[in-house]
Amino acid sequence: FPGPFTDVVTTNLKLRNPSDRKVCFKVKTTAPRRYCVRPNSGIIDPGSSVIVSVMLQPFDYDPNEKSKHKFMVQTTYAPPNISDMEAVWKEAKPDELMDSKLRCVFEMPNENDKLNDIDASKPAPVLNTAKQDGPMPKPHSVSLNDTETRKLVEECKRLQAEIMKLTDENRHLRDEGLRLRKVAHSDKSGSPTALALRDNGSNSLPSLLVVIAAIFIGFFLGKFIL
């Protein structure tokens, strides 16, 4: 049975009677819920043949699962007068029965078959280039992703360390600014202009550090997204 198995897959089984007598046949399977057989029994005239359609129902194919499905075609010579087929099989003796066993094989189409099934009228430059230059190289997306992830993690750790360092410096400068304010307030002899310059300098440094931290974070996020 060729895949894919998303729809009903039909395989024809040809039975031929090489004898000079009529032969009764019956088709059995170990998985009756998976298959639909038409006809599953009947009579074949001498020298004639019959086509039996075996229809596999859709299912989730697992390539690691070994198929254990089997079919058995059981035959016996037909009696002179046949009125009930079931009675023929019930009354048949074991030494009068003949059988042939068949094992089911599931095959999925390979990549070459998929390429051959593509409509030639549709442009496929990538596939054509691959055919001319040789076999397509195996993708290395997994290893590249792992390497890139490690780099991003290291970059993240470095940026986090930078942010912590800038935060500490910002806290230190803020404390220093508070100290200078206290000194300025306590220093009555200091000029108002000098005091204003001290305040502006202490306020601008934390703002500058916040801007630098924002630039680092934006650079990291942009690289991670790309």
CATH class descriptor of the domain at 9-103: Mainly Beta
The total beta strand count reads: 7
- The second-level CATH architecture of the domain at 9-103 is Sandwich
Uncertain parts:
124-133, 137-144
Assess the beta-strand content as a share of residues. Answer: 15-25%
Distance separating the two termini: 45 Å
SSE string, helices as H and strands as E: EEEEEEHEHHHH
How much helix is in the residues?
Answer: 40-55%
- What is the structural class? alpha+beta
Q: Widest sheet: strand order?
A: 4-2-6-7
What is the general shape?
rod-shaped
CATH-defined topology of the domain at 9-103: Immunoglobulin-like
Helices, by number, come to 5
What Rg do the Cα atoms give?
Answer: 41 Å
Tell me, rounded to a whole number, the average pLDDT: 76
Domain MSP: 1-107
Subcellular location: Cell junction, Tight junction; Cell membrane; Endoplasmic reticulum membrane
Coiled coil: 149-176
Main location: other
Characteristics:
226 residues; alpha+beta; Immunoglobulin-like; four-stranded antiparallel β-sheet; three-stranded antiparallel β-sheet; 5 helices; 7 strands; 20% strand
Describe the protein's architecture and organization.
The chain is rod-shaped. Helix content is 45%, strand content 20%. It has five helices and seven strands. By secondary structure, it is of the alpha+beta class. Residues 124-133 and 137-144 have low confidence and may be disordered. A four-stranded antiparallel sheet has the order 4-2-6-7, with no helix packed on it. It has a three-stranded antiparallel sheet with strand order 1-5-3, with no helix packed on it.
